[in-house]
Amino acid sequence: xxxxxxxxxCSSGIGLDAALTLSARGYHVFATARNDVDVKSLQSKxxxxxxxxxxxxxxxxxxxxxxLEETGGTLDYLFNNGAYGQPGALEDxxxxxxxxxxxxxxxxxxxxxxxxxxxxxxxxxxxxxxxSSVLGFVSMAYRGAYNASKYALEGLTDTxxxxxxxxxxxxxLLQPGPINTQxxxxxxxxxxxxxDDENSVHKVQYQQQVARLSTKKSTAKFTLESxxxxxxxxxxxxxxxxxxxxxxxxxxxLFAMFKRILPTxxxxxxxxxx
Length: 274
Known about the structure:
The termini are far apart. The radius of gyration is 19 Å and the shape is globular. The protein is built from 10 helices and 7 strands. Helix content is 52%, strand content 13%.
């Protein structure tokens, strides 16, 4: 019997590559997206696709019900991936924008995961994979909302791993660095919606940020494609002894080491160059 997996954030990038690759690998993939046009696109690719809005409790509950009805009440894996980044200096960030960042990146994941845990507990096994970021353990200027959401995710994930160990449910973190996805384009949209850059003391720095976010593909060194995240995901799903953390891209591996060995001021200096 083929393994089943629910993946969030499948409209493009990491989620889409994971859904297509795992489907081709024989998994029964339940791919979800927030926009109906993306759901239809996923269905046209032969995937079992559902609408899922992580900011809407009814949407989360209804989608889980539909998927469990299709599987007969079981689910082997959950890949929490759907998220976005809200750029902007913290002093310019409306509190409502910070709340919105957490609604999608943290609270929606928590609500969805809470619905899946009893399913995995009852069947006696399961794996929950969380897509975090290098910015889940080091911080960069003008990414405070996203930093905070990923730091929160890492804390929740570490706690969940301890709480579910006896239930034979593995909880695993993926920590990508720079990956070529639609993340920058979505972040630029969020920036324009929430930040008054023209009247900010950070106006000059914002011009640099907008220029960076406006490029279709990242020009940063060591940027990888979504396939590299999928490779780590496959290992997390199929290994008899999966890692607790998968550090993906050179920057993630370097900064994990730097955080352990460098004084904070030195680390701040390095991060300020990003």
